[in-house]
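ARCHIVE RECORD
Type: protein–small molecule complex
Small molecule: adenosine-5'-triphosphate
Source of inputs: curated submission
Record status: active
Notes field left blank by submitter.
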Amino acid sequence: MRTSRFFISTLKEAPADAEIVSHRLMLRAGLIKRLAGGIYTWMPLGLRVVRKVEAIVRAEMNRAGAIEISMPLVQPAELWEESGRWKTYGPELLRFRDRHDRNFVIQPTSEEVVTDLARSELRSYRQLPLHLYQIQTKFRDERRPRFGIMRGREFLMKDGYSFHADHADLEREYQNMYETYTRIFTRLGLRFRAVAADTGSIGGTGSHEFHVLADSGEDAIAYSNASDYAANVELAEALAPRERRQAPGSLLKVVPTPGRKTCEDVAALLGIGLDQMVKAIALMHEGEDGSTRTFNLFLLRGDHTLNEVKAAKIPGLAPYRFATEAEIEEFMGCEAGYIGPVGINGRVRVVADRTVAQMSGFVCGANKANHHLTDVHWGRDLPEPTLIADIRNVVNGDPSPDGKGSLELCRGIEVGHIFQLRTKYSEAFRCSFLDETGQQRFMEMGCYGIGITRIVGAAIEQNHDERGIVFPDPIAPFQVAIIPIGLRKSEIVRKAAEQVYDDLISAGIETLFEDRDERPGVLFADAELVGIPHRLVIGERGLKDGLIEYQARRDTKAQRIPRGELLQFLQERLS
Ligand code: ATP
Ligand code: MG
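STRUCTURE (tokenized, with ligand):
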């Protein structure tokens, strides 16, 4: 490709609202252009990267036995009513009406359409298993689109759906996809980790997320420093402390803590550590019609934080919300900031975190404005906790749930997700088949997503330096950039550069030929900014000695290669 005929639109400065490095670099390198919030045009250079990612994903999906299909972007609401998601999906689902006043959606995923297809096409166990996938535009009206295409509203996803006669076969395919995803992200040249995940609103059991490791990632991951245990912090189990609770010591005291409403303030006033404090979080469960309310007091150690996914799993709590200040007054008879578990009434349900249940001599709110209690002991000053559960986020140094080593935390960008849906959709859609004994049964289903466009951002988050993007070879928009020095002034340079370009193209190497009438400094800067992994510089001085300059994007120095050996040298570098 000759740059004079291509469409390069690099910028000196990225727009000020680009928060993370990949977003800034993608805008500066002219890979994407913003049209509206979370909606971007893929410019020619960026699109080449997207296509490379797609090609690798497609090749590995095909190799794994999945079959490509293309389902409609626009889907009738009836199918979404059938699954129940018309009600439950919420405002992320983009809905609209056609000219006949019928409701439609733009697909955020395609479980409904694919299950509808399966129920009409698949009848017998002989047709199973079947795995269909597509690489298609998705739309989700995200509450907070950000980081460019990383959390866009319109984005490209590979979504696959598999159908099985029994759970064992679904498990086999799940394992097959686990291995396929591992191959895909390895081939893409990314540092990643598969982590156990919560199954969230989509339902079903068995789920892994694939995360590209990067500090800017939105997800927190906990992993063991001594085994391959890894889980999303949403899910990672916090074990009870190994040490037993200490016997009661000094007597309970009421201490004045005027105006000190946070654990931090109280701890500072009393000169104790946050780990000696117990904080109380008031959560309200409200029945569907709003008539029944259950007030819950969740107890956490002062330095720990509530895990809202775990909280939702406490029986009788979901759906829940934080109690209002007025509700805290109503149920606790005390203003927020001084509430605690001692001396409460029967309308309050107490849920103690495992760690809190082991604490002794702790400090908590006195249920009296401007006062706290010290030296509180379970069993002596308040009844033993009846409901003890894991309700907190794990922290650095917690024991690993698999018993091996301790947990460390890092951040990741979710680029893939695999789920065992089981029969959630097949039951809703009466999607059944006749098994070997002639019995009608619901199909077992799995679903498997990869964020194609998000991968481009994640790859840049992991691979960049102060000069710009450093694309991993497998997804670079071009493999080699040829930069001639004085193309328009020197006939020798022009001839040699054209010849090298010709040779490379003939050898099937994707090459960008810098023939724009710009200063060499501009051409070098652009090639580095857009992240072309290999660069050739062709100048009169080198040519006199029969040499061409080569430098890989991460190299600190250039090497001089004899012209006659150039092609072979490059081919070795590229393979
Ligand atoms: P997230 O927690 O990041 O919102 P999700 O759990 O909603 O992701 P899935 O429904 O599992 O995502 O979708 C499959 C894949 O699609 C994700 O792993 C992610 O890589 C990608 N993806 C999801 N939402 C977006 C988005 N708004 N922009 C770009 N890619 C996305
Ligand atoms: Mg999402």
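CURATOR ANNOTATION: The first helix runs from residue 21 to 28.
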